[in-house]
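Extended Data, record Ig-like domain-containing protein
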Amino acid sequence: MIHIILRLLKRLSIGLYSRYTLWLLSFLLGSSLLQSPLYAQCPTCPSGATIISSNQSNLNINSGAVVCINAGITVTSISLNGGTLYNNGTVTGNVNFNSGSTIYNCNTFTPTNGMDINGPFHNYGTLTQPAGSNVSINSNGNFINYPGSISTFVSLSINSSILISSPITVNGNLTVNSGVTVSGPSGSCNSIAISGSFSNNGTFTNNVTVNKGASPNNGSIPASSINSTATTPVINTQPANTSACAGSPVSFSVAATAAGSTLTYQWQERVGSGGFVTLSNGGIYSGATSATLTISSPTTAMNNNHYRVIVTNCPRTTTSNSAILSVNASPVNPGNPVAAANPACGSTTLNTMTAPAGVTYYWQGNNSSGISTTNPTSATFALNASGTYYVRARNNSSGCWSANSGSVAVTINAAPTATITGSTTICRGSSTTISIALTGTSPWALSWSDGSTTTNVTNIATSPYMFSVSPTSTTTYSVSAVSDASCSGTTSGSAVVTVTTAVSGTRTWNGSVSSNWDLGCNWTPNVVPTASDDVVIPTGRPNYPALNSNSACNNIDLQSGTVSINGYTLTINGVITRNSPGTGTLTGSSSSNLTINGSGNAGTLYFTQASDVTRKIHILTLNRSTGSGGVILGNNLIIGGSTSAQLNIIDGIFDVGNNQLTFHTGNVPIAAGGGDRISVGSGATIQFGLPGNLGGNAFTLPNNTFAAQVLFSNLIINRTNPISFSNQDITLTGSLTLTNGVLDIAGRNLIFQNGNTPIVRTNGTLTVSGGANLTFGTNGNTGGSAFTIPDGTFTTAPTFTNLTLNRLNSLGLGNQNITLTGALNLTAGILSTNTSKVIFSTTATSPAEVSTARIIGEAEMASRSIGTGTINFLGANISANASNNIGNVLINRKTGPTGISTVDAYTSIASLWDINVSNQPATGGGRNVSFSWLSDLDNGKNISAMQVWRQESAPSWQPVGSTQTVANTTLRTTTSVNTTQFSKWTVSDNVNPLPVELLHFKAQAVQNAVYLEWNTVSETDNDYFGLERSADGKYFEEIARVRGAGTSRKLNSYQYSDQKPLSGVTYYRLKQSDFDGKNQYSTIIAVQTIRQVPEYIIPNPTSPSLIKILTNNSSYEHTYSVSVREITGKLVYQQSHAPDSEGLIRIGLKSVSFIPGYHIVTITSPEGTSHHKLLIQ
């Protein structure tokens, strides 16, 4: 029993001689046993002992001496002659253990040549006898083997009784001489394992066994030789082969007997072809030392493992047969169920992963128990009751179960029902009550319909729900939807209200009593029209009809007068005509609805044009089904009045003709079916939004909204939120007016034909995205005045795939760059970039330019990888060279006035190239480069003496190559020159030096003035400098002349102070004039001024009939000079005015020939000059 307790403590990592151990042994065995030295703790070194704290050899311990060897110290060869040794280190070599000596071994003791034990040897640690030596326990000696110690001998001769508390191993022969007793503590069962012969002349107690080989009492050791009276255990029931599911507990049991004894058990396990290994309790094993071994959670890796048990009746043992464990894999956990709807109405379905073949799913819950699906591909379970449900899987062949899935709590609510009743017959003009019975939980919501209009009702507290109706014709009422606090439900029934009316026919308006459409006395015969009746509105009536309720008719003939729809719906099921005199109209309002049903062409709609209100319809619905059926708009119409306003085309074509169709504030202005669209004429105007009514959500036109490629005159965007034409190309013969909001054309085509002002902008913008194309002018439509895209036209700087210019007059860019990913197609016209530029992305191609179709201004090829290859873009041609890699290349070109440079004493052609590379071609022979430009950019240069120039560092230019003659062709091209450095490049001649070499030209704002200064280092025949000023950097006026130095070769300085600068940014340049009248221009400089503008133009935009200028003067205090120029710079008006008593200057331009669009108004007063941009419509 002590042996079992000590092994248990060792497994629990509790020290064998700790206080806890001693307490436990005392509790189990009684305190008297603990008084024996056998169970004392390994003693500590006594005080006064000699301490060995360093390694030594040949240690002698004489009589009475006490020596302690410290831990970690090794002593080689030792002789004890009556002394005492405490070993906490390592002892090896020769050991002489003489009589009267005592050894306490608490660590490692290895007598190399064996040892004669002639005194007490207390072994608490490890005693190991090397091979080839002998150990003898002599008669005056004593060997005490303490629990937990290790004793290994090669050959052992026992001549004195010993007590075994821990197993001993003898790797050779064991001799027990006469008179010797080998015993163990009471209740224990310790063993001596031998490998050689066994000679026994002594006595063994029953709690000591001798083992040879794999089993006790094996080989030549007869039972009588160990003096035991114990009987060998008999196994009555062997462990049986067992099958188990992975993760499920499994047990092996044995039944054994031995007369009058208490048996012990030790289970063993064999994995594969290996040997049996002793099991201990812990982990998945329990009962390893009992009659039943339990494996709590076997795995498939344990399949075919063998298990046996050794049954011991100390010292006799019997080993059982081995039993085989078969472990079957458990099915995969089906996964947590997911409810198709939760909470659900009426029923729902639980879903999990699909069951593999041979596996059955079992659904369980408080509504259904044990319900299974045997379809191996099904993983669903339909249920109609609330509850908590889970699923698990069972292997049909092995019977193994998976773990339970997670559970899902499902709530099933009963679906409500709604049943409508109330069929009856009434006279026209009478009313009746319809009843809807409801089941479920209040409050309810339902929708009922009269066949044309659906009414939604919410928060119904009681059943039945009842409502009153007064149909003018037989009507079927139905309930189309019902829901309660939890569910949507089912509807049933119908209520047919039959209205007795006169036979269908023609109803002619007489208007004898009032304008009430619903009064029979106003009609001939005396019956209000129904949906199947034709209606005639003749001339000369005292009153004309106005709707007092939703009304309908078949055909309607609007001969004269007007039909006021008011805030109701007029439904026309036939054709609209206007027989003589043909002046009849419809009058709408912001709450009027018009529905046109039937088939075929419905005729032409005319609305009263007295005001925006009278020609307004809230919702216009078109549902004409046959062929090209539809309706034609005879004059202008506004669809609007609220956020729900729209043109709803269910079927048919809505033909706008050449009229103006305006959509006002609706969230969804247009709802068009698949093939049902809007047709427009080339003179039509489509407008979104009205002044003061800019509401409505962002909106995208439905697919195929328009009947064909959109070609109309004007498109007006005056709406806060964006309108998207992402599904429709646009072609305009007039203008795109961006008053407010955003027009999004996404990746579509925007084409302007020959309008004088293609784009008019106040506050609106245009948004584009990948794939969009922009075209100005088409074949046969290349007219229109010179035009500049207004500043800020695009929401952000746009990127187009292609930009096409086919417009005889020029096109100018506003203040935004345009990026192209495809091509710039220059068919006709000049593209002027002004202060912006055209950027060609890495996928774009170089534009093909001719004299009549080219770029003036800045163009740029975005940086792209060239490496060792070649590139020819914007007239810069860089050759290939495999010996150097220039990496990425960016080419910027300026043409026209901004492309003219001063190189040495010469002016250049009107073309400047700026080439940037990642790596300069400083090695490998450099790169060859040539340049091409149109003859229009010669700037008067002599093509017989042309020189290529490169700017190393501003303002210094260096010639590259020699003077050359350029061929006299439209496209000028230099011969290649070699360079090892790329920077700015241009071409000039060496014939006509500049008359003036300008050192610098500067401007600085000082308080309310601008101070200008310039210096020259040489002048030739210089008459004067004209100082010019501009508000936009394009159109300049001279403000002063400063006399030049004639001919001079010294530094000359010039100054001028502009005391009345323009407000905002002012641009300046110098015009140098020779005595012979020739002129040269300097570069343009800009300066920011802060002068307050004292004049304002109201309103803006305005009409040409009256332009009002508000000044801060009155009563003719000052005279103002007013000039008006077109955006091209053409002067259309100039005159002096004095403001009236209100401080207003009033100007009329009716008698002046001008082009509608943006104009620049310049106002000069004693306080200075201001410039204003004005839109004249």
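Summary. The longest strand covers residues 818-840.
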